[in-house]
Amino acid sequence: MQHAIRAEGLVKRYGETRALDGVDLVVPQGRLLGVLGPNGAGKTTAVRILATLLRPDEGRATVGGFDVVRQAHQVRSLIGLTGQYAAVDEMLTGVENLVMIGRLLGMSRSDSRRRAAELLERFALSDAGGRATKTYSGGMRRRLDLAASLVGRPQVLFLDEPTTGLDPRSRTELWSVVRGLMADGVSVLLTTQYLEEADQLADDIVVFDHGRVIASGTSDELKATTGAQVLEVRPLRPTDLDLVSQVVADVIGEAPDLTGGRATASVHDPAVVPAIVRRLDDLGVVATELALRKSSLDEVFLALTGHRAEDEPVTEKAATAKEEVPA
Ligand SMILES: Nc1ncnc2c1ncn2[C@@H]1O[C@H](COP(=O)(O)OP(=O)(O)OP(=O)(O)O)[C@@H](O)[C@H]1O
Ligand SMILES: [Mg+2]
């Protein structure tokens, strides 16, 4: 079977930092792969290599069957890229930005204008199309950015953290645009720091940490490593925390985490919640907080690596100083 994207053993070093440390991944034709990982995990580095903007030190990769180093030109004709930071020209209007890209891609003036109008319509930017993009909101810029990467009708699309910094509504809108692209048969590699986003969009997910793939599978498979959901119970009287801990441990068969004055535990079966509520009630324990929520990336991380995503070095300096000592 032909893969839209295939990478084998990708390595990229920056001095002592291994931004990528032997990454393998595949995106089957017409599917969306979610690359999930915290700051500095190597997501952007992988995207830049696959989009021919950066050469790997080791390993190889193909996009649409073409080698990203030796056949970069062919690869570029197939792909679209929406980078992590907005790439539109602030002084130009939405229409001008898109027409310029069409012209750069060798389209005629009228074809470029037609394509621009079509994309602005699709991204609900028709009304704003005549305004300089510096007057756009963050969400509008992200949408225009995505539109810009689609001018050339790419078969393979790279989206690097497309919704970071967007409000929930803009995020949901962008998700539906991405779903529309998938319905058109476009293959997508999307990076994100949000488990929920990967959950919403991705057929398959790979989790990056320190430049390595530390887990891969469907969203359900990944969550099965942590428990699909997280239960949190905070007693009104802090002294009841031990009782809460016992009840939760009894019902789910595992001792909860007790940091922050509340009991937190992964839950595979939501039916345990009423049982816990009844037991607490019998014991006269009042909870001020009782919630069942989806696992966060952080919890998936903790389960996979034994450390929290926040422990990662964020600055370049810290990353370099830390070297490659496995956690
Ligand atoms: N040009 C560069 N020079 C030196 N170090 C770099 C460079 N680009 C990336 N790095 C380092 O490589 C590692 C991976 O960076 P990368 O940008 O790929 O991470 P990321 O997963 O995209 O993170 P974020 O979620 O913050 O965008 C980091 O430790 C980063 O500091
Ligand atoms: Mg990045």
From TrEMBL:
Pfam families: ABC_tran. It is found in: Cell membrane. Transmembrane segments: none annotated. Residues 5-235 form the ABC transporter domain. GO terms for molecular function: ATP binding; ATP hydrolysis activity. SMART domains: AAA. The keyword ATP-binding applies. This is ABC transporter. The lineage of its organism: Bacteria, Bacillati, Actinomycetota, Actinomycetes, Streptosporangiales.
